[in-house]
Amino acid sequence: MKSINRRKFLSISALAGAGAVVPQIIGRKAIAAPVDGAEKEIVTRQLGRTGMTIPILSMGVMKADNPAVVRAAYNAGLTHFDTAHGYQNGKNEEMLGVFFKDKDRSTFTVATKGKANLKSDNFEQEYEELLNTSLRRLQMDYVDIFYAHAIGDLGTVNNPRLIKMLKKFKDEGKVRHIGFSTHANKPAQIDEAIAAGIYEVCLVSYNFKLDILSELEAAIQRGVKAGMGFVAMKSMVGGVEDADAKSKVNGAACLRWVWKNPNITTAIPGFTSFDLLENCLEAAHSPKLGESDIKYLAGLKEKELLYCQNCGNCVKQCSKHLPIPDIMRAYMYNYGYKYPSLSKDTLTELAVANNACAGCEKCTVTRCSSGFNVASKIAAITPIVDVPSHFLA
Q: Whole-prediction pTM value?
C-alpha cells in the first residue's frame, strides 16, 4: 500500500467534504479511498442482534482533535465512530457533531458513553442530563449505541436504577442500542449482562496479551449466543513498547489478531494522525493474520509493554488497597496514548493523590501479572494530578 502523502490526503479529504466516495448504506461493504489507484473493500460483520452491519475497522475518536483525520477515515470507508461524554471535556463530541451535521445519517453510526454515578441521590436526573448534553454536542436526535461507561463491578452492570434509565433512553428514541464498556472482571460481567437481558453491545478490552484469554473468549461466545455484539478496544496494548515511546507497537498485526475471532464485530483503535490511520487501513485491507504477524506478536508476548491486565491481584497485595489497575490505565493514557488530560481526569475521579504511596516504606505489591514495577509507575504518574489542566490540553 502506498503512503498517503499530504497532497493525496488533501485530495481525499476534499472529496469527503463534498460528500463523494463515501459509504452509501450501512450494511454494504465499505469502500476505501483509492489511495493506491484501486478501490478496496473492508470486510463487514453483524453486531449481535442490533441489526447493524459495520466494517471490522472503526474509529475510536477519543484522542482525535482534528476533523481532517475523521474526514479521511470516513472517506476511506469507516462508518462507525466511537466517542464519550467525557472525552476532551466534551469537545470530542462537539467536533463529531460539526463534522457529521451535513452528512446523510444513513452513512455512519455513532456510539457515545457515559459513566453512571449510582452513589448520587440524583443519579436519574444527572444521567439523563448527561445523555441530553451529549446529544446536543453531537447535534443528533439519537446515538446508535450508548454505553454505560467503564463498569468495573458486577453490582453496577445489573443495578436496577441503571437498567431502568437505559431502558428509558431507548424507549424515548434517544438511544437505538444499549451497551456497556468494561476493562475489568470481563467474563463475569458479560455473564451478568446476559442475565440482565437488556445489553445488546459490549465494548471490551481485548488483545493478544490477556492472561485470561480463554475465559474471556468463552464468555464472549456465550454473549454472542445470547445475541450480544462485541466491539474491541485496547487492542494495541498501549501503542508503544515502553514509556519513552521509542518503539511503536505494530497496530496492523494487533488488529489482525483481534479479527481472527469472528465474534468480534469491529475494533476501535484511536488514531490521531494520517500515518496511524494508514497503518490501520493496511490491516483492514488485508485482515488475515499472517505468519509474520504471529512471529511479531509472539516476540511481544513476554515484554512488559504498557497494558495492565486488570486482574486485581495488586489491589489485594497493596496495604492501602489503592485502585492500582485504574492508576496503571492512567499511566498508559499519559505515556502510551500521549493523552495527559485524560490521565489526570482518571486519577482525579478516583481521588488518587499525588502522594498516594506516602507512609509506605516498602511496596507490598511484589507480584504483577503484567510484570510492572507498580511502585515506580505510581510515582511516575500520580504527580500529574497537581499539574494545572491548561498545561495538559
A: 0.88
